[in-house]
Amino acid sequence: MKLYVLKRFVQYVPVLIGVSLIAFSMIHLVSGGPVRTMLGTQATEEQVEQVRDRLDLNEPLHVQYLDWVSGVVRGDFGESIQSGKPVSEMILTRLPKTVWLAIGATLISVLIGIPAGIVSATRRYSMLDYAATGLAFTGISIPNFFLGILLILMFGGYLNLLPVSGFVDPLKHPIEGVKHLILPWMTLGTALASIVMRMMRSSLLEVFNEQYIQVANAKGLARELVTNKHAIMNALIPTVTIIGLNVGYLLGGTIVVEQIFAISGLGRLTLSAVLNRDFIVLQGVLLVTAFIFTTVNFATDMVYAYLDPRIGYE
Fold first, then answer.
1. Dihedral angle of Cα 180, 186, 187, 190, to the nearest 10 degrees
2. 3.30.420.130, 1.10.3720.10, 1.10.8.60, 3.40.50.720: CATH of 90-267
């Protein structure tokens, strides 16, 4: 197991280096350069050169990259061109809000999706199966922005039960914090639960066709025992992949949901950086987002080794 973790970590490091190169290159290789993109086509060459000198963009690209990476290692992502605030401070202020969104939405997807997938697979072609499958297709088909608006109208407008915008830290004010997060959690978690349910169902049905399951059934073991002890753990492996990807996506920034519910998270910061052409902020957000994705994938690999020890000992 230790060797497996070490191998995965060794693979993890060059991925992070590659990610930093991509985040840096995406901004600096845009047509006309980042400064021209930021200032617009009406800016004069003199204005462009002044900004390039101020941001040290006249240095060779490899020098700029090394300076940027050395700053990132120290926690310095530079300063926002628009506001002048440290980018690291802006990210750290907004990231916890996105983390809260991701935690709640992931819990909803797991608590609904996995049991629904198990019930659907073990009672195939029953009314429960048809109902769960139909609800899953409905959840996948409804766009986040449309579902969010419906929930706002229903629970905030007609019923007046829940707040429809803003963020309150659940660690400081647990009740109010959860109230403010219920609708965003439902908006994000519904679609994710549908995806998890479909994956769990198909994976479990595939496991049921494996030879060792058929042997266990032939021995006369109770169906519940075979399902709970032998089938579910193996069926969880591809489902964990989907959950891991979902977590990475959510932590990377849920732009639409944050915009609808006026939550100043990482997604809205990304949108603001794009609209304001603040490439320093965008560069930092891209790196943090990619770091989150790769870290979640690393953690997913560790879960694989727990669910199936054979994976870690190859």
1. 170
2. 1.10.3720.10
